[in-house]
Amino acid sequence: MMGPAHSLSGAAAWLGVGAAAAAAGHPMPWPVLVCGALICAGAALAPDLDHKSATISRAFGPLSRMVCEVVDNISHAVYKATKMRGDSNRSGGHRTLTHTWVWAVLVGGGMALLAMRGGRWAVLGILFVHMVLAIEGLLWRAARVSSDVLVWLLGAASAWILAGILDQPGNGAHWLFTEPDQRYLWLGLPIVLGALVHDIGDALTVSGCPILWPIPIGRKRWYPLGPPKGMRFKAGSWVELKVLMPVFMLAGGIGGLSALGYL
After folding, report:
1. Which residues, including other chains, have CB under 8 Å from residue 212's CB and lie 6 or more apart?
2. Are 185 and 177 in contact (CB under 8 A)?
3. Is residue 28 part of a domain?
4. By residue range, what is the domain housing residue 242?
5. 51 vs 67: CA distance, rounded Å
6. Cα–Cα distance for residue pair 6/241, rounded to 1 Å
7. Spatial distance between the Cα atoms of 27 and 21, rounded to a whole number of angstroms
8. What is the pTM of this model?
9. CA distance 8 to 203
10. What would the pLDDT profile of 200-237 be if each residue is shown by its tens digit?
11. Cα–Cα distance measured from residue 140 to residue 163, given in angstroms and rounded to the nearest whole number
């Protein structure tokens, strides 16, 4: 799928988690619901860090382009080192390592530990990166005609405001994880969810997605999971734009209202 659909699906997924959490007796404070939805929308773009033409590769200028090149090379190397007889030869790392559950868990876990141990500046950094990505994904038409600096300033302002709100007692710094040393541990959850939602979205497209690596399926370790080929679609096709994106918006709205107790 393309960036806007990925971001919408990420936001809708977190709002759905909010509804489920409320039904299970662990309601999210509204700052956690809003902040988590934006983080998840941004994190849903992150697996494409292995693609030089993706939204995330342009989001932070030369720095993100350099990181994308490094991640692409690492992903390709891991692919070659672990592929089985049934896996094809390929020249790049797109839709390999960063499109697996292993990557989602490692990145989400790493960010959770960073937020928990690193204090306010670590939280601000995590929020800034994901706010910029959320802006690029959810407001992609406006972001493309704006300068990168304006997008970064909006991301920085959003991160600063949200961090200040979350720091207030009862606003969510200790949501779900209540021990004193578990402050902001929950920030890893929308990051893991965003990556997995991205992978599921890509699995619906023609190429499929090797979400289960390194678990072998048949003679392939990088088996491209997906529905039957007749049910798949091309990225950017009318199915994505006219069907899935409206569904994501509707599902997100219902999930958000349920999470806040209005449904």
Report:
1. 100, 101, 223, 225
2. yes
3. yes
4. 3-74+94-259
5. 10
6. 11
7. 5
8. 0.93
9. 16
10. 999 999 889 999 999 999 899 999 999 988 888 887 78
11. 24
